[in-house]
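S.,

Sequence below, as promised.
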Amino acid sequence: MPTSSPSSPSAPPAAERSARGDDLAYLLPMGLFLAFTWAGGKWPSFYPLSYVLKTLVVTVALIAGWKHYNKIRWDHWGLGALVGVLVVFQWVGMEKLLLHFWPGYPRMSHEAYVPAEHFKSVGLMWAFIAVRWAGASLLVPVMEELFWRDYLWRTFLAPNDFKLAKVGEWDPKTFLFVAIAFGAGVHVEWMTAIVCGLIYGALLVRTRSLGACIIAHGVTNFLLGAYVLMYKDWVFW
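The prediction came back faster than expected:
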């Protein structure tokens, strides 16, 4: 009596599961990051703990999904570092010089979190600042560049299968869409962040190196953290 082979009908579902795993690997870290960020903003007393938890949980999510990501090229790192320095001046300059006097611009109404006002222990305060600075400099650049300038960029180019598009593949609509989504979607300083997104996008197109963008983003965030600590301009955090 003939029996049906279990292998043929199982192939399409397996392919679908693999595709869903690829998408989830990119979406989950960003989703978790935004959820903890929302919670920290909703309940200010929870903000320090939410940032520590966010850093740990998102790191685990990135490690778990690492096999699904394209191998990251780390060439053009020098240009990436230079762009990262440039963006610090662009970010602070736009916020303080160009947009500072714009009535109703979000930065003017954004309530800064000042650690000295929330920690009784100096040691705990500096421990939190260390986690905050390290998270912004090391974790956020990897997570955001994987999502914005890898996953979203290629998904916009090839909606049915983002892996058919190349990293940094040029398309003017994609270039603008990702920069606007990056700026307006998750940043209070939306206009400054859009310009920042355009600069990072140009770096990606020029180098085709996601690693260069991660380095640029990391240098920007590290130096911005140094600026915050040096001048106590906490609104930039």
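The radius of gyration is 20 Å.

Coffee later?
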